[in-house]
Amino acid sequence: MHRACNGKWQQFCDTGISKEELHSWLEFAGMFMSNLGNYFADGDRKTIPDVSEDALRRMASISLEITLRLDEIIDPMMAVQPSKLGYPDETSQSSFYPGEARTTKEEIVTVTRLIETQGVGAENTRVRKTSHHDAESGHWDEFQVVQACVEIDEAPGLIGDIKIGKRPGQIFLHRGDHSKEMNLICAELQEAQKYAASAEQVAELAQLIQSFQTGDYQTDFWSALKMWVKDKAPPFPGRVLRITERGLSNEVISRLRTFKLFTSWHFVSSIFWEANNINLNNNDGHNYGVKNLIYGNRMSLINHPGRPCYYVYPSEAGTYMACAHIVHFIGTAIHEVIGHGSGKLLAEQTPGEFNFDHERLPLSPITSQSIQTWYKPNEIWDSVFGKLALTAEECRAFLFAYYFADNQEIVARFGYHETRAEGLRALHSFKPNTQTWGGDHHQALPAIFKHLVQDGDGVMTVDHDPVKNIIFVRVDRSKNMSHGKLSIGRMLCKIHIWHSTADINACRPFYEDLSTVDGQYETWRNIVIANKEPKWKFVQPNTFLKGGGTVELREYEASNVGVIQSFYERDI
Questions:
Q1: Cα 82 from chain centroid?
Q2: What is the per-residue pLDDT across 290-323, written as a single tens digit (0 to 9) for each?
Q3: How far apart are the first and last CA of the chain?
Q4: Could you give the angle at which helices 440-455 and 389-403 cross, rounded to 10 degrees?
Q5: Cα distances (angstroms) measured from residue 279 to each of 101, 179, 253, 292, 335
Q6: Could you give the domains of the chain?
Q7: 243: nearest Cα among 281, 297, 290
Q8: Torsion of the alpha carbons at 434, 439, 445 and 447, rounded to the nearest 10
Q9: pLDDT in tens, 555-569
Q10: H-helix or E-strand spanning residue 383
Q11: d(CA 327, CA 426)
């Protein structure tokens, strides 16, 4: 559509649509491009354009190509269901499982386990199920595992046979999914090798290219990641932050003496991601390396002038917003580096071989008794803790960030020498009809918030005005250290030790109780739901290589049209 109108979107009004309809479409298109899809917000909920099908068809009439493309997508785009991403069912869908036959969770787990035994990673594959029936074999299912890579198999290859219940099935591997796109990626990586800063970076890119060409994820791709993690402090445009393992972790260990046996510190590289952590583990459960990045444009939203501050008293909102960015930045760094970067899993690695002293079992700081649980062979955090695994891990990382928020040595490493209402705000992600949360972080934050309200002896309270239907969080600063930090420490100790010792039976009732939204918390949630926050979009600049080796940085207007033009000019 951008190409058809040459970026002059007002031309579509000549097709008979109103300015309001055009604005609504651009709102949807800008959010779609910025989000890379029409499933976003809490829990990957589907968003439907606020434009009628008739208006869309009138807009498409500007070009035969657009008309044909719209015919292909208009029905699923405008359909209410499936309304979210997830395992395929009546209300959810996933592009990981294409085709008309619905793939069950049990089938997905069975297929994944089998292909991993054959050295095929699940991360770059999709599963297409086809059901068959014939007189000789009866009912059976074919699962075609399509693998993203450049090389294309002439025909699928049999991986193995399975049986789910009484129904047999066969699994085939077919390489070449997204072959065209993977080939373009490889071409760009080959070009990037010319500008690598070291021989190690050239080798890292070569491993990535090899992985994307062949589809080998478990060997080539992981080799590239290991090289990347070990590439300390590479040249990077912008601020580069280093935290050495010795300086940071030694100080932290001294403050967590009861955790010492349950803690395995990971070395840290130079750059941070917000909400994105690359954490590599060896087969023995010890960490190979970790690397993180923070994207400044997303972080800057914390104190953006247009961001509403619903739950802080107006008299304190200015102070809160003035320090929110710093607090969130440092908190995110501690969350990623110390939170996700710590935690030894006590395990029986192979039958009879343990990574701890099994003859003299360590004492749990929670019970002061010998631990009773640990990870058995082939068990990992995800498999033992199931649906709680991701959110409990995020909760653990948040707790580390809050516990060390007052640590002047850590804070000084970020250039500062001197918590927030996020737990209340995250209540909007809870879905009462399914008793589920829209995200792992969103479940973790209210759990911590509820724990502070119940266990903090007044350090954090909520003032609710039922007449005005407003709520404010009140923090008693005089109790921050004497009550608040101790409460955070108690919760952190429990989650961390249960994480290390595979004690799901202790963790589940504790965490699920804190995650329950009922009574006054349900009342607060209803107020949070009513306070709509803006959907943020990000306009990304592009770079273009010009004659003479110069580089042009091209920026775009901060609008939906700017978002669309930015994507269009990437020529992807």
A1: 21
A2: 666 666 666 666 667 667 888 888 888 888 888 8
A3: 15
A4: 50
A5: 35, 28, 20, 9, 13
A6: 2-85 (no CATH), 95-177 (3.30.70.2600), 180-230 (no CATH), 321-530 (no CATH)
A7: 290
A8: 30
A9: 999 999 999 999 999
A10: helix 381-385
A11: 18
